Amino acid sequence: MRLERGVAGSRYSSSLPAAQTSAVARDAADRSQTSDANQPDYNAGQSAYATGRFVEALRIWRPLAESGDPRAAFGLGLLYDLGEGVGQDAAAAYVWYRTAAEAGVVAAEFNIAVMCDSGVGTARNAAEAAVWYASAAAHGIARAEYNLAQLSPAMRFISASDSLSFVFSIAVIASPMQRQA
Q1: Domain extent at residue 112
Q2: Hey, which end of the chain has fewer CB within 10 Å, N or C?
Q3: How far is residue 111's CA from residue 146's CA, in Å, rounded to a whole number?
Q4: Is residue 6 part of a domain?
C-alpha cells in the first residue's frame, strides 16, 4: 500500500476537502471556540501549524483536544505522525487520530484505517481497517474505497462498490462493539 501526504498533511491522507467533517466535529469545534475567552481557539493552532510554528500549535491544540475538540485531536495526530514540534511517535498519532475519527473527522477515519491496515502505530488489524475504510469511503474518500477493495485478496473478485456495501454493512453492525473496545 502506498502511503501519501495529502491535503490534510499526514502520510496517510487522501485528497480531502477541508470542509468535509461531520456535524459532530463541527459542533465540538464550535464549543471549543466559545468555551473560554482566554483560551486560544483551534484556528489559532491551525495558523501556527500552517506557518511552521509547530510547538505553538501543540501548546494550543493539546488542551483543546483534551477537552474534546476533535479537530485539535486530529492536529495533534498530525504533529506526532510527522514529528513536527514533537518527536515522531506513531502510537501517539494513532491515539489522537482515533479520538478524532470516533468524533467523525473524516481524514482521521482514513488515517486510522491505513494505520490499522499497515500496522503502523498499532497492531495490524484488517477487520478494523475495513470498518474505518468503509466509514471514510461512505464520507466520499475515493482512496478509502480503493484501499478497502485491495484489503483482502478475496475482495478482488467483486467490484469495489459491492465490497464497500458488504463491508459497510458489517461496519454498521460491528461499529458499537469495535469502538467500545
Answers
A1: 23-180
A2: C
A3: 14
A4: no
Q: Which helix (H) or strand (E) holds 39?
A: none
In a domain, 13, yes or no: no
Q: Which residue has the cell 502506498?
A: 2
Residue 167 is predicted with a pLDDT of 57
Model's pTM, two decimal places? Answer: 0.70
- The one-letter code for the residue type at 1 is M
Q: What angle do CA 53, 58, 63 make, to 5 degrees?
A: 145
Is 126 or 175 the better-scoring residue by pLDDT? 126
C-alpha cell at 168: 459497510
Total domain count for the chain?
Answer: 1
At residue 137, what is the residue type? A
Q: Please tell me the total number of residues recorded for the chain in this structure.
A: 181
CA distance linking residue 116 with residue 4, whole number of Å = 16
Q: At what angle do helices 70-82 and 23-34 cross, to 10 degrees?
A: 100
Could you report the per-residue pLDDT of 116-133, keeping only the tens digit for each? 999 999 999 999 999 999
